[in-house]
């Protein structure tokens, strides 16, 4: 701010006119009068005439901070203004620090609004405030330039409100603090203020502050000796050093001339009476405009009109004294418990400030010392009754005291625990040093090395592994025990020394014991049992055992996983199982490299460490469901592990040393073998585990499932009895799957219901028969053995094989629509959710059937002219495979002949284009499925005779089996009972007998 004081040439005359009065005034006062504080109006007057004391007037640009000091401090007459080096021109807007003032104005109605979020400020306390709003920053800067470093600090009602300025008075509390800015640090985009709180104020109204208006105010210069006041206008917007001094000086000269003339007139009228002139017009643009219209919602509140709020008058009653003493005592207790409060109190207390006998300041001090919520502190700030304010502060201090006690208690407990641990650590270290000096104990690294060497002392470690072990032990001795590499090396040595180098378990080579164990656990499975006994016999003759890779495949629930555990028990080998179903990471097989954090070996190495032997039995479950992802192909990783020529030097990524897996017996399980990669399948010995027939299921239920369910349910033989006819009905009407898992669930369900009856005292013993079976397992799931009890023309029963076992599959053929009058080639439609292979089989079967029908009767053109529809029931189930050609061709000929084939007949086999019957797979499952539905006659390909001969006698008993190599043999078997009268369909046009050609379903 630039302050320019210009006096007219008539001023010396005025001074001479009052010289006598001046000498009289000085003579009546002593020198000590200038050292005593004057009233505020006297100090203001004295300050304003300070430019006159030197006997002349100087034009000076006063700094805003210095102006603030001059407004609120008294000055002696003996003090002189410091000389100015730049002839009254000083640069800068305002200093970074505003000196503390002694006196503040008692009334200051218009203040900028500073809204804070958390703790409110109490009178006589200092607070650091940062302002980031540009409009508010400009306002504070202008107020400081105007020598008005005063603000109003108010608390926001919502702590979530992070706005720098408020939009409504409802966002802040009405009672706040009038504060003076002591120090300003301009950081460019924000201001940092150190403010001193003085008194409580209350918002009366909001004031509109135009940030873009040109502020012009007047500076008053009062001369007490002359009893005259001169007002000089000052423009705040002047910031440049180039000032039109002549115009300002002219304004001042005109104003002084006018005042001098009026003073002379007054002196002529009454020379003894001097009064200040009050009738001169005043121009004051400093006062902001009070907006009578409410501000818009988008206009922030910057200025408010406030009034002073004083506390109610009070007397020093006994209650106030008691509360004061209790406050002081509580503060002392808090300070004694936490030294941090002592530092805070020293910053809050002013020098020379009395606290003990000042309840007003003491209540504010107590509240400010606590860490109470903003609402509680605001309540203390708004309370005008000193007695109530003391009580509120005391309540907050008591809460703070209890919190300090709790903190001290927690701190002592933690400190005691830390001290105890530290003491134990020191004692352990001292004990180590003492034992080391006495030779009773070695160093940590020496002890670790000795432990590792002790672990491998009784093992036959190969030389390559021993070299790596020595190298790692040597590296461990040079590493710091707190380094990460030390832990990595130590973990690697743990795995390396935990491997069963040269350790094998003693195998059972007694055939009789092995047979006994296998028969105890499983019924049937002669192929698997025979293969295991052969393995034992070879090992017995050779004197040593070798690892093998077997693969059991078959439908679910036939006992593939459980037989592996029985084999391990029969061979006296350790058993380890892991599943590769859905596995997509190669590291699960071959391990992670040691460069990764938390690296581990693969499953095989983990198996050897857990079983502590080199010849365990490892079951790899669900090998047909192994996955493949971006991290590699686990099936390819299994190639090295399951290759007898390579697994003697299996290399794990983590161990990175050769490991011998040639003595491990690997057994894999799968439901289908089509999804197993061919190289992996070539490395394994495949053993088929087909489903069970009803006789086998009945035997398994009686010998294994029923006793197991009775034991698990807590029943005894005297409490439950399941008859054989009930088990047979359960197998036939509820559990037709190839395995026995569903049968086991139904038997367990029966035992649970019987246990419930026994506990409720409804029965002491329950007999389960075919008649009351539905009371325990519900209605039958399968009410008919097959879809057609008597097959009509165009329908033939085929045999299929799935992952769930064998099943019967009917082929239906009929006329789709009648032919027209014109002769045209017929069409056929195929439905039933069939695959591409089966669709091709239908085309081949159609060609074979047409050719065979033409050879039998050249006049019969039914298959050429008719629009046929071939359907395979159960369309929701996908069907595919090359085994239904014979069945489809037979169904077409049956429709063309309008004659049903032999009843109780089922067939399977694929056709070539020339009518040759090709071999198929799944003979055992298909035969079991046919016998399950009481089929008496089966047609099989000639080349599958060897597969049929391998079946057990209880499966083949009662079956009439025909092995065929050409389709004409199939035709003779199916239509053996054909009469000559209706052997062939007449040669009439198809349209004439279309209605009679429709098969009858019923």
TrEMBL record:
Lon N-terminal domain segment(s): 111-401
Chief site of localization: mitochondrion
This protein's GO CC annotations: mitochondrial matrix
Keyword flag Transit peptide: yes
Gene3D superfamilies in alphabetical order: 1.10.8.60, 1.20.5.5270, 1.20.58.1480, 3.30.230.10, LON domain-like, P-loop containing nucleotide triphosphate hydrolases
EC number: 3.4.21.53
Key words, A-Z: ATP-binding, DNA-binding, Hydrolase, Mitochondrion, Nucleotide-binding, Protease, Serine protease, Transit peptide
Active site: 883, 926
GO biological process: cellular response to oxidative stress; chaperone-mediated protein complex assembly; mitochondrion organization; oxidation-dependent protein catabolic process; protein quality control for misfolded or incompletely synthesized proteins
Job of this protein: ATP-dependent serine protease that mediates the selective degradation of misfolded, unassembled or oxidatively damaged polypeptides as well as certain short-lived regulatory proteins in the mitochondrial matrix. May also have a chaperone function in the assembly of inner membrane protein complexes. Participates in the regulation of mitochondrial gene expression and in the maintenance of the integrity of the mitochondrial genome. Binds to mitochondrial DNA in a site-specific manner.
Protein name: Lon protease homolog, mitochondrial
Species whose genome carries this gene: Mycetomoellerius zeteki
Taxonomic classification: Eukaryota, Metazoa, Ecdysozoa, Arthropoda, Hexapoda
């Amino acid at each position: 701010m630039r302050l320019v004081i210009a006096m007219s040439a008539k001023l010396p005359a005025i001074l001479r006119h009052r010289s006598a009065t001046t000498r009289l005034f000085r003579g009546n006062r002593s020198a000590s009068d200038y050292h005593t504080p004057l009233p505020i109006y006297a100090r203001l007057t004295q300050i304003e005439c300070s430019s006159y004391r030197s006997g002349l007037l100087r034009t000076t640009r006063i700094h805003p901070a210095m102006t603030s000091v001059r407004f609120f401090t008294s000055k002696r007459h003996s003090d002189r203004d410091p000389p100015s080096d730049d002839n009254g021109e000083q640069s800068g807007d305002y200093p970074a620090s505003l000196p503390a003032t002694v006196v503040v104005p008692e009334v200051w109605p218009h203040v900028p609004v500073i809204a804070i979020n958390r703790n409110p400020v109490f009178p006589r306390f200092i607070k650091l405030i940062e302002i980031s709003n540009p409009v508010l920053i400009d306002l504070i800067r202008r107020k400081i330039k105007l020598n008005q470093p005063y603000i109003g600090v108010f608390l926001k009602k919502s702590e979530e409100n992070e706005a720098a300025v408020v939009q409504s008075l409802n966002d802040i509390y009405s009672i706040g603090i009038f504060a003076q800015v002591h120090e300003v640090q301009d950081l460019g985009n924000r201001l940092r203020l150190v403010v001193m709180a003085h008194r409580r104020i209350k918002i009366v109204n909001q004031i509109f502050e135009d940030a873009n208006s040109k502020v012009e105010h007047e500076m008053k210069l009062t001369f007490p000796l002359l009893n005259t006041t001169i007002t000089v206008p000052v423009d705040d917007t002047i910031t440049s050093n180039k000032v039109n001094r002549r115009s300002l000086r002219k304004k001042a000269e005109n104003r002084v001339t006018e005042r001098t003339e009026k003073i002379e007139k007054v002196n002529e009228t009454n020379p003894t009476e001097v009064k200040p002139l009050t009738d001169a017009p005043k121009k004051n643009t400093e006062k902001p405009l009070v907006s009578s219209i409410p501000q818009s919602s988008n206009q922030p509140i910057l200025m408010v009109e406030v009034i002073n709020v004083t506390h109610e008058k009070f007397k020093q009653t006994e209650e106030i004294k008691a509360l004061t003493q209790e406050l002081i005592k509580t503060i002392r207790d808090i300070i004694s418990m936490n030294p941090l409060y002592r530092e805070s109190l020293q910053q809050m207390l002013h020098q020379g400030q009395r606290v003990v006998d000042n309840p007003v300041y003491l209540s504010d001090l107590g509240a400010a010392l606590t860490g109470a919520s903003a609402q509680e502190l605001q309540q203390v700030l708004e309370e005008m009754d000193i007695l109530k304010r003391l009580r509120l502060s005391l309540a907050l201090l008591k809460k703070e005291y209890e919190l300090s006690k709790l903190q001290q208690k927690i701190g002592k407990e933690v400190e005691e625990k830390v001290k105890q641990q530290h003491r134990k650590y020191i004692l352990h270290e001292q004990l180590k040093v003492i034992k080391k000096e006495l030779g009773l104990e070695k160093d940590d690294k020496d002890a670790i090395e000795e432990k590792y060497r002790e672990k491998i002392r009784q093992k036959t470690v190969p030389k390559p592994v021993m070299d790596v072990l020595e190298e790692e032990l040597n590296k461990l001795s040079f590493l710091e025990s707190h380094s990460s590499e030390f832990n990595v090396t130590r973990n690697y040595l743990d795995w390396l020394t935990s491997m069963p180098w040269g350790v094998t378990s003693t195998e059972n080579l007694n055939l009789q014991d092995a047979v006994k164990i296998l028969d105890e656990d499983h019924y049937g499975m002669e192929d698997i049992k025979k293969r295991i006994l052969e393995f034992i016999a070879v090992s017995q003759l050779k004197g040593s055992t070798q690892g093998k890779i077997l693969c059991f495949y078959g439908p679910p629930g036939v006992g593939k996983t459980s037989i592996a555990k029985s084999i391990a028990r029969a061979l006296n080998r350790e058993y380890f199982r892991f599943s590769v179903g859905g596995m997509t990471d190669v590291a699960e097989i071959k391990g992670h490299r040691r460069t990764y954090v938390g690296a581990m070996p693969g499953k095989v190495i983990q198996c050897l460490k857990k079983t502590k032997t080199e010849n365990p039995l490892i079951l790899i479950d669900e090998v047909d469901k192994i996955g493949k992802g971006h991290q590699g192909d686990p099936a390819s990783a299994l190639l090295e592990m399951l290759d007898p020529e390579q697994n003697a030097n299996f290399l794990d990524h983590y161990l990175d040393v050769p490991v011998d897996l040639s003595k491990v017996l690997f057994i894999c399980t799968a439901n289908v073998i089509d999804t197993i990669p061919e190289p992996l399948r070539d490395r394994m010995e495949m053993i088929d585990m087909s489903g069970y027939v009803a006789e086998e299921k009945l035997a398994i239920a009686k010998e294994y499932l029923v006793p197991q369910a009775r034991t698990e349910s807590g029943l005894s033989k005297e409490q439950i009895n399941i008859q054989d006819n009930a088990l047979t009905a359960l197998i036939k009407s509820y559990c037709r799957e190839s395995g026995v898992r569903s049968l086991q669930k139904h038997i367990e369900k029966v035992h649970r219901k019987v246990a419930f009856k026994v506990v409720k005292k409804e029965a002491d013993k329950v007999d389960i028969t075919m008649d009351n079976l539905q009371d325990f397992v519900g209605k039958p799931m399968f009410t008919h053995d097959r879809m057609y009890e008597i097959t009509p023309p165009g329908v033939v029963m085929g045999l299929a094989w799935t992952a769930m076992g064998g099943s019967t599959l009917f082929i239906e053929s009929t006329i789709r629509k009648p032919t027209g009058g014109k002769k045209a080639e017929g069409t056929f439609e195929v439905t039933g959710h069939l695959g591409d292979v089966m669709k091709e089989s239908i085309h081949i079967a159609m060609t074979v059937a047409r050719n065979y029908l033409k050879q039998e009767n050249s006049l019969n053109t039914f298959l050429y002219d008719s629009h046929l529809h071939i359907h395979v029931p159960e369309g929701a189930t996908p069907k595919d495979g090359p085994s239904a050609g014979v069945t489809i061709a037979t169904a077409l000929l049956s429709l063309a002949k309008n004659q049903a084939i032999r009843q109780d007949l089922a067939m399977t086999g694929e056709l070539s284009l020339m009518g040759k019957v090709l071999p198929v797979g799944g003979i055992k499952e298909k035969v079991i499925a046919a016998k399950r539905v009481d089929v008496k006659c089966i047609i099989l390909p000639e080349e599958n005779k060897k597969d049929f001969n391998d079946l057990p006698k209880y499966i083949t008993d009662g079956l009439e089996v025909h092995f065929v190599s050409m389709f004409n043999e199939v035709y003779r078997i199916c239509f053996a009972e054909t009469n000559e009268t209706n052997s062939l369909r007449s040669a009439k046009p198809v349209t004439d007998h279309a209605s009679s050609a429709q098969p009858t379903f019923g």
